[in-house]
Design goal:
The complex is a heterodimer of chains A (526) and B (277). By secondary structure, chain A is α+β, with helices and mostly antiparallel strands. Chain A has 20 helices and ten strands. The longest helix of chain B has 15 residues. The chains are: A alpha+beta (526), B alpha/beta (277).
Amino acid sequence: MTDTDARSFRNAAALKRLKGRRAADARFKFYGRLAIVVALAALAMLLVSVGTQAFSAATHHVVRYDIELDPARIAPDGASAPEDISRNVEGFYGLARDSLLETFPEANTIPAQRLLLAKTLTRLAVLPAAREVAARPELIGNAYTLTAPLNHDLDLFLKGRGAGEMRVEIGSIAAAKADADGEVTLTGPDAFKAVVTRLASLRAEMGPAADTLSVLVTSGRSTGRLSDITANTARLDLLTGDAADFEQSRPAGRIFRLAESERNVSDQQIAWVLALKDLGRVSRVANTGLLTQTDSTYPELAGGLAAIVGSLLTMLITAFVAVPIGVLAAVYLEEFAPKNRVTDLIEVNINNLAAVPSIVFGLLGAALFLNFLDMPRSAPLVGGLVLALLTFPVVIIASRAALKAVPPSIRAGALAVGASKMQIVFHHVVPLAAPGILTGAILGMARALGETAPLLLIGMVAFVGDVPRSPLDESTVLPVQIFSWSNNAERAWEPMTAALIVILLVLLLLMNSLVVFLRSKFERRW
Amino acid sequence: MDGTQQAGGPDVLGDGQPGDAGTTLGFPRIDCRNVNVYYGETRAIHDVSMTFPDRAVTALIGPSGCGKSTFLRCLNRMNDTIDSCRVEGEILMDGDNINDRDVDPVLLRSRVGMVFQKPNPFPKSIFDNIAYGPRIHGFANGREDLDNIVEKSLRRAGLWDEVKDRLSAPGTSLSGGQQQRLCIARAIAVSPEVILMDEPCSALDPVATARIEELIDELRKRYCIVIVTHSMQQAARVSQRTAFFHLGNLVEMGDTDQIFTNPREKRTEDYITGRYG
């Protein structure tokens, strides 16, 4: 009786066991899904944070300067050879500066001019124009539109960052009257009601510090700072333009959550750039400099070209060194080497080599290539060799796995029709293992492309202003450039760094796509 | 019965004299004398002496692990690829011991072809599967010659009509039975004198098996064939000579009819009748 009970499908113990098993199943599935969700969330966070930052660096603001290419300033003292012109930064900068000062006659003192120029036009930003004119001398003497990137602080401001800018609505201004002292008062029924309300809430939030916040009003190209604000009246300190512009207007209002002393851009500079914008001289364009410029001290002029070329040269060296060594070693070990203690030892050591921290290879490279072999510092040649040391164990391991995966029946078949060992290996085994070998090689290279630490030790961290032309030139690589930029203080480097990271990720993605493509194209069934 | 005369006793005198092979069988193509095979310290084959007549099928039968495959692989030195394996004794072909140091195993394998248990076409086109052997041995003068060899080999393997329109299709796209015939054609393409078959039908269905057996019967007219099989019926159907192996020893060897109808050894009889442990 008990015996049959115990063997019945529906006895209590069996049902309980079943329930327990199902619960364990469900729990395990839940944990698995949770793990995937966590992993995906981490990836999504990375992509979103880097992506949004990089997106802001993908465009930047440029300012137009309509200048006359006066030969006396472009080619002073008859220095009209193209190379002289392309190097005449001072001449072009002078012309652009004059155009800017002409626009803002109120900047009539040296400090005011410095204030204007420092945050608008970077001296070196005229270089592309100088090069263009050098290449086309017929432009000299004619009108010319010089376009130069806006200083990075004002660029960030125009992108809505760095000043805590808040828009407030301003009602219709009835009159802008100047009193005897020349102080202008704006009046309008309830014109500043929204400003008063907003300031009150900011005071509640920030305390007395709120009283120092700037309130700017802009009408057309004129901008001024407000003080003594009541619902109907406010005093205007004109920063640029003409007080008359405010008569019968509805100006745009801005409150800045950061006090002027805490910002990189002053009210005056903001007023000027808003005026330039109103004049249609500021436009937001794609930041092609990211791909065409080299490193610079000024974020608005910096680009990753030198690092990209440096990375490609370094990868080239790595590929030419690591892949042949790795593949040949793998073929020998897998197909020809006797299986004994020595080869076991070699295998263990290759596996260990793949796990050695990369900075150790950097030290080795510095000692061996730089000190002992006296190779040039900071060169892609040395970087490539160091990365090759790092990569080839990975290539060996991947290639051996690919060679091992070729079924013995293929070897036996070839052997039986009278193929020699070499013919078996090179006619059958290696071609069949090629997709796997290539995959390993490319993944190894992808790892090398992202390496930073060993390259720091061989001096590839230096500032490189020129695109390297050969593997012996001074150079840097993308990850190291990212590292250097992330150490810079200015806020504008943050999005620039993110943009460079995106470029690196795109390169890695391309390499991985190549792997997938090669696999699907060449992988064969047997 | 026109087979070699068998002496009594536990051993076999299959190593008979060349002229003694009888009317239907050719002269001995391979002559094995006191062959011993060791895997490390283990002796896998004990003093086997036997001959393989030309233009005949010799079947090697015996329970699993009796050494018949090992012995078969000695005949084209496939055991060379196993590090621990050592072959002693003489295996004579044209009077030369194939295990001599100055015998080129590559040449030997072109004269002694092999077909394996599982069809193992190269992952290349049907054409390239057949053409590979002639190419590496330099047998073909030009493309036309190669085309002829491929066609002839496929015809002999009974596969030509099925694949002539898709020679560029991958060999692996054929059915199992076709793949095995492709492997036979690949072996034939280098004009071997001997074809070794290691359980060639064990991975095939009965229909494909029947086709391979017909083919073996056809090929017998030109080649010396040695086949290892687990199927008693197959051995009875396709072979003229049968050798029974047990625990590394050659227990009995004789004409197939005689082995299956009138075995001299008790062990042979037990095995053939299925009474074997």
